[in-house]
Amino acid sequence: MGREEEAETQTSICKDAPNLLSFFVDTFVDFSVSGLFLLPTPPSLPPLPTRLPSPSRLIAVGDLHGDLDKTKQALRLAGLIDASDRYVGGSATVVQVGDVLDRGGDELKILYFLEKLKREAARSGGKIITMNGNHEIMNIEGDFRFVTKTALDEFRVWEQWFSVGNKMKGLCQGLETPTDPFKGVPMSFHGVKREFFDGFRARVAALRPNGPISSRFLSQNVTVLVVGDSLFVHGGLLPQHVDYGLERINEEVRDWINGSSGKFSPQYCRGRNAVVWLRKFSNEVAQNCDCATLEHVLKTVPGAKRMIMGHTIQTAGINGACENRAIRIDVGMSRGCGGGLPEVLEISKNSGLRILTSNPLYQNMGNAGLNVGKEELLIPAHGGLREVEVKA
Asked: Using an 8 Å Cβ cutoff, are 172 and 17 in contact?
C-alpha cells in the first residue's frame, strides 16, 4: 500500500469514527438496559402496509402487559423461539395485538426483545408485527394510571444509561449534540409521591410523542391491520372507522407518535367507541356481542372473514363469538392481569384456525371433541395442546 492509499484509508477511518462511536454508545446503552446486543438500527424502512397477503402460517398473540416470561412462553408455544430465545419461526407472520405496556415491570425488556425478534424473523423471511393497544396510546399521552412501581424503576434505569450515552456522544466533535429528552418535562407531579418523581420523569421523556422510546419502538406499530382474510385491531372497528380509512388511521397515529400533532391522540383512539377501547364484540358473554354491527364492518372490508381482537380478558381462553366472526385472544396471561395460561391463535393458509395452549385441563383428553358453547369453538385436544378447529 502506497503512502497516498494509506493516508486515504486513515482519513476514511477518522471520517467514520463519529458513526462508529455512535453505534458503540447505542449498543452499550441497549445492552445495559435490556441485556441484549442488537444489530445496528436498520436504515429507515417504509411503513408497514395496512393490508398484507395471507401467509402460509399466521400467529396472533394477545396482550402482554409487561410480563417477559409469559411473552416468551407464548412464543415458544407457537414454535417461534427456541430455548435460547432465538427466532425459529421461519416464514411465519406474527401479529401481537397491543398492550405491551402497563401492569408489569418488563415493558422495556419486551420492547427490546420484540425488536430483536423482528430483525431475526426478517432474515428468515418472516414478519413480527406489533400493534397499538389502548395502553400504548395512554402512555404516549402521559396517562400512567396502570403503571407499576417496578415499571417506573425500569424506566428510571433506562434514563440513567441513556443520559450516560448522550454524555459520551457529546465528547465527540463529529457527532451532533443529542437532543435533551427531558426538555419541558416537569420536576414534580401532583398526586405522585416524591419517591416516584424520577421514574415518572423518565417515563414521560421516553414515551411522549417523539420520545426516544416511543419514536424508536412504538412508531413502528400499526393500529389496524388486514392479513389475508383476518382483520386485526386491539379493541374493535365500527363502520365509521372503516369509512374514515384504515390506511389513514395508521398514518395519522404513526405521525402523532412521531411528534407531528401534539400531545393527544386522534379522536378515534379516545373514548369507549375508539378502535383501541371498543368492547362491543369482545364481551365474554357471546350473546351480548353486537354481531349485526360486526357483520356490517366485515362486509365493508374486502375479503375480511373475521375480526381478531385483544383488550378484553377472556377467562375461558381464546374463543369466538358471532359464529366465529369475532375471535377474542386476550387471555390475561400477564401476572398483572391474573396470570392466565398463555394461548396463541394459529391460522393456516386454508383459513383453518386452531388454539395452542399449555392448559393442563386439555392434556388427557385424547382426540375427544369438546363443545364449549353454541357460538364458541369446537375443541379437539391432542397431546397436551388444545387445538381448535374453526370452520371459516
From this structure: yes
Per the domain annotation, does 228 fall within a domain? Answer: yes
Q: What are phi and psi for residue 329, nearest 5 degrees?
A: -120, 5
Q: And the C-alpha cell for 292?
A: 349485526
- pTM equals 0.88
The CATH number given to whatever domain includes residue 116 is 3.60.21.10
For residue 210, the SS3 value is coil
- d(CA 64, CA 86) in angstroms, rounded, equals 19
Domain that holds residue 317: 56-100+112-146+210-386
pLDDT digits (tens, 9 = 90+) for 68-118: 999 999 999 999 999 999 999 999 999 999 999 999 999 999 999 999 999
Is 135 catalytic? The answer is: yes
| In-domain check, residue 122 | yes
First-to-last alpha carbon distance for the chain, in angstroms, is: 68
Cα–Cα distance measured from residue 222 to residue 166, given in angstroms and rounded to the nearest whole number: 29
Sheet holding 224-227, edge to edge: 51-52, 224-227, 230-233, 306-309, 326-328, 319-321
Q: In Å, how far are 65, 124, 136, 208, 388 from 265, measured between CA atoms?
A: 21, 35, 11, 11, 37
What is the CB neighbour count within 10 angstroms for residue 3? 7
Question: Do the domain assignments include residue 105?
Answer: no
Strands of the sheet with 93-96, listed across from one edge: 127-130, 93-96, 57-61, 343-348, 353-357
Neighbours of 280 (CB within 10 A): 20
Q: Assess if residue 30 is contained within a domain.
A: no
> Active site residue: 65, 135, 234, 241, which one?
135
Structural domain count of the chain: 1
Asked if residue 323 lies in contact with residue 306, where contact means CB atoms within 8 angstroms, the answer is no
